[in-house]
Design goal:
single chain, about 270 residues, alpha/beta, 5-stranded parallel beta sheet, 4-stranded mixed beta sheet, 7 helices, 11 strands
């Protein structure tokens, strides 16, 4: 983390842990932060996200938590919500600790990816009015925001590139048929993470991550609120157990890292100007 900046990013990691066997021979469906390999997996994601999307003007905080495993969530998706909810209890405690001992009244940005995005939606539901006043924006990456979620007073849909106090949500696919229901089905919120518009205006850009050099076009499907990506020719890791060809869930941050970093900085600057 950086220290001494005026604005914080509070980031919640995606699923980085697989099922494992404990000393009694039981299959475990949650990470154990006492295990070095589980700790390192989350730390690796934290470092990567900090370097990719955290503006230099921000402090970066991210909690370790005993997250649900990949198999525990996706081998049988009936357990997705209850296991995410159990893991999110730890995130809520970590956020409360951060607010009490580390935030010191600063403005903050919430960011979560996949299982971490589920946690961010739950954090938004429990914000106090004072916390909501200081929240610059919340980024729900690779997960859904439902109509029911929008009934909570501090989940307000982003309308553009620089509004503040809002929730930004996106899910990327080659076609609507490639959507994964448990992650993005029935999402009521979507924004194009390249041009930050909520209509179907195309945005063409150069994708230059990890040696790739593709010209991509991002278009928001205004019926499903999914971001349609065309022009991608690289390898796309598949979500275990429920992945679909043309689903870009595993690339949600690499596809847009430059735009995310710029947009976080823009929303902070917009908040400063108020």
């Amino acid at each position: 983390m950086q220290d001494g900046a005026e604005t914080d990013i509070f980031y919640v990691c995606s699923t980085e842990t697989s099922d494992w066997i404990n000393a009694q021979g039981d299959t475990m469906h949650f990470a154990d932060m006492n295990r070095p390999e589980h700790l390192e997996a989350l730390y690796s994601e934290m470092r990567g996200v900090d370097s990719l999307i955290c503006p230099e003007s921000c402090n970066f905080y991210a909690p370790y938590y005993n997250q649900a495993t990949i198999e525990g969530l996706l081998r049988d998706t009936i357990f997705f919500r209850p296991r995410c909810a159990k893991a999110t209890k730890e995130v809520k405690r970590a956020f409360a600790y951060y607010m009490r001992y580390f935030n010191h009244g600063r403005r903050f940005v919430l960011v979560g990816y996949s299982q971490g995005a589920y946690a961010v939606v739950e954090l938004l539901k429990g914000l106090t009015a004072e916390q909501a006043e200081r929240m610059v924006a919340a980024y729900v990456i690779g997960y859904k925001v439902t109509k029911e979620d929008l009934s909570y007073p501090f989940i307000r849909t982003a309308k553009g590139a620089c509004d503040t106090g809002v929730t930004i949500c996106y899910n990327s696919v080659a076609s609507v048929e490639a959507a994964i229901p448990v992650l993005s089905g029935s999402t009521a919120v979507g924004i194009n993470p390249v041009n930050w518009q909520t209509d179907a205006t195309h945005a063409t850009y150069l994708y230059d991550f990890a040696g790739a050099c593709d010209t991509l076009t991002a278009t928001l499907d205004t019926l499903t609120h999914l971001t349609l990506i065309s022009g991608y020719n690289g390898v796309c890791p598949q979500v275990p157990f429920c992945g679909r060809e043309g689903n870009y869930h595993c690339l949600e941050i690499p596809l847009y890292y430059r735009f995310l970093k710029e947009n976080i900085a823009l929303r902070i600057a917009s908040e400063n100007s108020l």
